[in-house]
Amino acid sequence: MWISGALGAHQILAPGASYADEVTETVDKIWDWLGPLVKQLGYSGILGLITASAFKFVGRAGAITLGLVFIGLQALQHYGYIEIDWGRIQAKVGKRLDVTGDKKFDEMDIKAILTSVLEAMAKGLPNAAGFCAGFLIGLKVM
């Protein structure tokens, strides 16, 4: 049973209920919510969810790192310690990321990279479609 108060919601045991009963009831409620999703996705889908969670974690860490490096470089450039040719850097990075070979980095390149990554992650799994579905759900939910 939950009691709401000025300090937030707190759970207390129902009269005559043991801690094990409360845990079992909570697990049952969680399974009622998650069970249908787990059954639909299966093994490959659950791996997709987990992989998406890891991708998001690594992506955030990478974005923070690159952002801090950019701030540092811009500060050094602002105070005259270094000169950065951002146009040249953009051209080199764009050339490396242009996987379609059309001389520009666009949405088609992003789709090709995503397809390549998902194919590599789903290779050998019993249900590649389940993995991809779990991955996309994980990106949205987790």
**Rg computed from alpha carbons, rounded to a whole number of angstroms:** 24 Å
What letter string, H or E per element, gives the SSE order?
Answer: EEHHHH
Unreliable residue runs: none
The strand order across the widest sheet is: 1-2
How far the N terminus sits from the C terminus, by CA atoms, comes to 27 Å
- From the spread of the alpha carbons, the general shape counts as elongated
Return the average pLDDT rounded to an integer. 83
**Beta-strand content bin:** 5-15%
Number of discrete domains: 1
The total of beta strands comes to 2
| Percent of residues in helices | over 70%
Largest β sheet strand count, sense and barrel closure: 2 strands, antiparallel
Helical/strand content category: mainly alpha
Helix count from the secondary structure assignment: 4
Subcellular location: Membrane
Organism: Ostreobium quekettii
Keywords: Membrane, Transmembrane, Transmembrane helix
Family: Belongs to the FUN14 family.
